[in-house]
Specification:
The chain has 485 residues and is α/β, with parallel strands linked by helices. The chain has 4 domains: 124 residues, Rossmann fold (3-Layer(aba) Sandwich), CATH 3.40.50.2300; 171 residues, P-loop containing nucleotide triphosphate hydrolases (Rossmann fold), CATH 3.40.50.300; 67 residues, Orthogonal Bundle (Helicase, Ruva Protein, domain 3); 43 residues, Arc Repressor Mutant, subunit A, CATH 1.10.10.60. A 5-stranded parallel sheet has the order 2-1-3-4-5, sandwiched between helices. Strands 7-10-13-6-14 form a 5-stranded parallel sheet. A hairpin with an 8-residue loop joins strand 11 and strand 12. The longest helix is centred in the first third of the chain and has 20 residues. It is elongated, with a radius of gyration of 27 Å.
């Protein structure tokens, strides 16, 4: 049986500690201490999900201790166990210490296990819904109902059938691969240019799988330095590094039982790749600054716009991590490779824009759709969305016409720039792909006069990701702004 969470028992009677440990240890990791001082020392080095505290202890009551815990470590769900039913204690516990449950002695083992399971689930739900700061007097039933409704809506919004494509589109085969992957608990690596909809496919795989009723969480691995990325994914204790001002539960733990989507996995450093590989191999994490590892059951879907096989050969990406992630690879075609879908996607985007901009009469001029079909869309679907929003903002009438700028751009399909001295057609596929990518970036830098923010936005890259590519292709001199400050 898998361990569902970590429980801290605070009780001055050793026999009571052992009784609680014996009942709970099959389902939870149980840590026992005999007083508040030892409990606080443990909380400084461990992440716990729930606290079971005796009310009548020497020197300090359970309510007094948990009130202090609420101020210093607000995340664990707090519970009192007592052989007394003093109403004043109960009221004080509920109001001052944010007690979730007041459990009276003698307790029944089956009932206690269910209460603790509910407490751990409440902890996870609060983290998942970003409500960790709310008072834990909120009922788990209410939070479960809210999360259940949100997941039901998400499942409808991210069904495979909602991915817009025509019958003859190359996306048809991609979706079929996604459906097959969803049926099996296997790691998926989604490749493709930025803005092609890799996260959309990842969500469809999750909500089409047996994990659909659990969390789907997302992390952009190219946006953070290693230490912060470790903290985000694996969690950390307060004070583990400069800037760690509070305990943080990692996204792997938030996603326990569900799916984690690691976007831009190709941007990670070799040092971080080693740590991620261990997590995937052992199915366990160690929060920064914590003393113990924690078991997690998470499906990983990763995505990248890089050629990871080429990165492996170049020594920039670990071969063992690549094979761990790419158990089931799926490639997303660029928008220019599926021109038959452009008008369908554009109409879908316009439907959303009508609602968000409160302009229900907006419509495309035929010429606009024609221009869309001619343009090469280096930023893919994300660029198409941005273009339609921009057209709606600039339009004084309900009919949307493609701006002249798009018309001029449509004829400027970037030709690959010969690289590595191989202009005679002898270049490898990797060289040709890199030449095309460099050409697209140069084209975008020219169009936006080197403005880093606008280039990153159009290409669907983070500023960190764009900075790496500019350095890689020696294009820093073409960029303006604070990208290299």
């Amino acid at each position: 049986m898998s361990i569902q969470g970590t429980i801290l028992v605070v009780d001055d009677e050793v026999r009571s500690q052992e009784a609680l440990r014996r009942v709970l240890r099959e389902d939870f990791e149980v840590l026992c201490v005999g007083n508040a001082t030892d409990a606080e020392k443990l909380l400084e080095g461990e992440i716990v999900h729930a606290i079971l505290c005796d009310q009548r202890m020497p020197h300090e009551s359970g309510v007094s201790f948990l009130k202090r815990v609420r101020e210093l470590w607000p995340d664990p769900v707090r519970m009192i166990i007592s052989g007394y039913s003093d109403s004043e204690d109960i009221i004080a516990g509920l109001n001052e210490a944010g007690i979730y449950q007041y459990i009276t002695k003698p307790w029944q083992p089956e009932q206690l296990i269910e209460i603790v399971k509910e407490a751990v689930q409440l902890y996870r739900l609060q983290k998942e819904t970003e409500t960790a700061g709310v008072d834990v007097k909120a009922t788990s039933g209410h939070i479960k109902k809210v999360v259940s409704v949100k997941r039901g809506v998400a499942k409808q919004l991210h069904d495979f059938d909602r991915i817009v494509h025509s019958p003859e589109s190359p996306m048809h085969n991609v979706i079929e691969l996604g459906r097959r992957a969803a049926d099996y608990d296997i790691s998926v690596l989604i490749t493709g240019e930025s803005g092609t909809g890799k996260e959309l496919l990842a969500r469809a795989i999750h909500y089409g799988s047996a994990r659909a009723n659990k969390a789907f969480v997302v992390e952009n691995c190219g946006a953070l330095p290693d230490e912060l990325l470790e903290s985000e994914l694996f969690g950390c204790k307060k004070g583990a590094f400069t800037g760690a001002y509070q305990d943080r539960i990692g996204l792997f733990e938030v996603a326990d039982g569900g799916t984690i989507f690691l976007d831009e996995i190709g941007e990670t450093s070799p040092a971080f790749q080693v740590k991620l590989l261990r997590v995937l191999q052992e199915s366990e994490i160690r929060p920064l600054g914590a003393q113990r590892v924690r078991k997690v059951d998470v499906r990983v879907v990763a995505a990248t716009n890089r050629d990871l096989e080429a990165e492996v050969e170049a020594g920039r990406f670990r071969r063992d991590l690549y094979y761990r992630l790419a158990a089931f690879p799926v490639h997303m075609p660029a928008l220019r490779e599926r021109p038959m879908d452009i008008s369908l996607i554009a109409e879908g985007v316009l439907s959303a824009v009508k609602i968000s901009f409160n302009r229900p009469s907006l419509r495309f001029a035929r010429s606009a759709l024609d221009e869309f079909a001619k343009y090469h869309w280096p930023g893919n679907v994300r660029e198409l969305q941005n273009e339609i929003q921009r057209m709606a903002v600039l339009a004084d009438q309900d009919e949307l016409r493609a701006p002249p700028l798009l018309g001029r751009r449509s004829g400027r399909r970037p030709a690959p720039i010969p690289a590595h001295g191989k202009s005679n057609g002898s270049a490898s596929l990797k060289d040709k792909v890199e030449d095309l990518e460099k050409s697209v970036i140069m084209n975008c830098l020219e169009r936006y006069d080197g403005n880093i923010s606008r280039v990153a936005s159009e290409l669907g890259l983070s500023r960190v990701g764009l900075r790496n590519k500019l350095s890689r292709y020696d294009l820093r001199k073409n960029a303006k702004g604070d990208a290299f400050s």
